[in-house]
Design brief:
Blueprint (H helix, E strand, L loop, with lengths): L20 H13 L4 H19 L7 H12 L5 H8 L7
Helix pairs in contact: 1-2
Length: about 100
């Protein structure tokens, strides 16, 4: 890290993107609906996507016994009152 920057540095940097007009209009509508500028909306969306991408790549190491237990749990079919309640709940994508 350069000497003139700290971990809490608030310096901003330009990022230039070229996007089709229909996509820009969609982004603008979504940003407006959330009371954000186009830049703020795009930065928030890109940050969330970056975090999710990195979290998807997280490696968890466990011993063989723990891994075996994990596989056993995955192989068991879901059941119980809460599962039944979830499965019988109304689906928001169906009318």
């Amino acid at each position: 890290m350069p000497n003139n920057q700290t971990p809490n540095d608030t310096q901003t940097h330009a990022v230039n993107l070229r996007v089709r007009g229909d996509i820009r209009s969609l982004i603008d509508r979504a940003a407006k609906s959330q009371g954000k500028t186009r830049s703020d909306f795009m930065i928030d969306a890109a940050r969330r996507a970056a975090e999710e991408s990195l979290l998807d790549q997280t490696l968890v190491r466990v011993d063989q016994k723990t891994y075996g237990h994990f596989l056993e749990v995955l192989d068991q079919p879901p059941s119980g009152e809460e599962f039944e309640r979830l499965m019988s709940a109304a689906k928001p994508w169906k009318d």
